[in-house]
Amino acid sequence: METGKVVQWLVQPGAQVRSGDVVAVVETHKGAIDVEIFLDGIIEDLVPLDVELKVGALLAHVRVAGELAATAQPATPLPHPNPAPSLVGAAVPTVAPTAPAPGSYVTKSSPAARKRARELGIDINAIGGSGINGAITVSDVERAAAAAASVPTPASPRRLHGFDPDQMRLAIATAMARSKREIPHYYLATTVDMRTALEWLHAYNKGSPITKRITTGVLLVKAAALALREVPELNGFWRDGRAVLSSEIHAGNAISIRGGGLIAPAIHNTDTLPLSTLMQALSELVRRARSGGLRSSEITDSTITFTSLGDRGVEAVFGVIYPPQLALVGFGSIVERAWAINGHVGVHPVVTITLAADHRASDGHCGALYLAAISRLLQTPEAL
Amino acid sequence: MTQAMTEAEIRKNILEALAKVVPELEEQTLKSDKPVRDQLDMDSMDALNFMIGLHQTFEIEIPESAYAKLMTIDDCVRYVATAAANKGA
């Protein structure tokens, strides 16, 4: 991602803004992103819409309280996909589910419908949706295209939310090719007995209303985040020829987008969240990743990536590190296997957890300690 | 909310709850007697969010043990109708 453009301002010049407010929607190769602000003050000098800007370019100035307009501070740079060191930890943690900003859900439409709209040169925001809750479907787009066929000039397509499948493919291609070109990966795998964890989880869920129940995936994410405290060498970035470790653990969670592509937005300070909060954050992240409305800090702040392909029955995933991160952790499907303990064989649920790590920054020994720590933490689920 | 709801109304509300999880859902192409997860490429988080949606829409309890019985739209319609009838009784 090198350029982007503001496609919508959600504030007027002169408006009062607060740290954490979503002020603009920026379109990038990774799709539309909600840009947050990290200062309290008066916003002004908004850049015009639809002008191509370089990553890091200023979008607006924020005048903080007591400051004269003449000394206004630059405040809202275009989000960068590879977090600069100064960004790590500077972002306001947004662990609580965040309500979408008013007006930010302009169009409800699927990636397939948006793709079709682009192919047909239809402005998806200009057509009505016949889908459930007014969502725009592929059929709506095709109907609109048929209706517009007699009109000489097709409307220019504009997309406010969600992902452009072609652009996303391009972004994945660029990042993954760079990863395999530059990062000397090493891979480790371990099989973890999940009997204790699952028994604890079933008991926990049985006593909880449906809205408070947690999934196995949340236990895995929490254990993998906590284990990073013990092995910090895997948490951070490779920058300027050396590993820059992060003191905070922001796990990017790979979320597949229906119809193709994926994105790995961060849950800030993953290791500090109680399971119920983590569950809520993850559920909210999945929802927003698929329907639009991710925040700029979520896109840029991940210090490591977790991926799970267990839902599709895959036993192990050997991941490709998302540069410039140092590692990627993969969770497979939970399967029942014959499992021997003290010479006795029983049937236990087990999961294969894998690590892909950057050999420039860490060695296999370090990776082994990390996987062992996750495995150990999962044996005392009540402490997660 | 489930009081005196017809089967058609239940079905409509179920589809609305599903569309909140899968916005790109196209009603015409969804087969109501085939597993929803496979048809819509839903993962476990989507599936749980759909169950939460049913719970909130119809104000019924859905124990974890019932998830496996709620594979298709038809399954959900039957489950909701029964749960609503039991609640009313």
Topology:
The complex is a heterodimer of chains A (384) and B (89).
Chain A: E1 3-9, E2 16-17, E3 22-28, E4 31-36, E5 41-44, E6 53-54, E7 61-63, E8 73-74, H1 111-120, H2 138-148, H3 165-182, E9 185-193, H4 195-206, H5 216-230, E10 236-239, E11 242-245, E12 251-253, E13 255-256, E14 262-263, E15 266-267, H6 275-291, H7 296-300, E16 304-308, E17 327-331, E18 335-341, E19 344-358, H8 364-377
Parallel strand pairs in A: 12-16, 16-17
Antiparallel strand pairs in A: 1-3, 1-6, 2-5, 3-4, 5-7, 7-8, 9-19, 10-11, 12-15, 13-14, 17-19, 18-19
Chain B: H1 7-21, H2 36-40, H3 44-58, H4 73-88
Helix pairs in contact in B: 1-3, 1-4
Structure description:
Chain A is built from eight helices and 19 strands. By secondary structure, chain A is an alpha+beta fold. Chain A folds into three domains: 3-74, RNA polymerase II/Efflux pump adaptor protein, barrel-sandwich hybrid domain (OB fold (Dihydrolipoamide Acetyltransferase, E2P)), CATH 2.40.50; 111-148, Dihydrolipoamide Transferase (Irregular), CATH 4.10.320; 176-383, 2-Layer Sandwich (Chloramphenicol Acetyltransferase). In chain A, a hairpin with a 2-residue loop joins strand 18 and strand 19. By secondary structure, chain B is mainly alpha-helical. Chain B has one domain (7-88): Non-ribosomal Peptide Synthetase Peptidyl Carrier Protein, Chain A (Orthogonal Bundle). Chain B has helices at residues 7-21, 36-40, 44-58, 73-88. The radius of gyration of chain B is 12 Å and the shape is globular. The two termini of chain B are 15 Å apart. Chains A and B meet through helix 1, helix 4 and helix 6 of A and helix 1 and helix 3 of B.
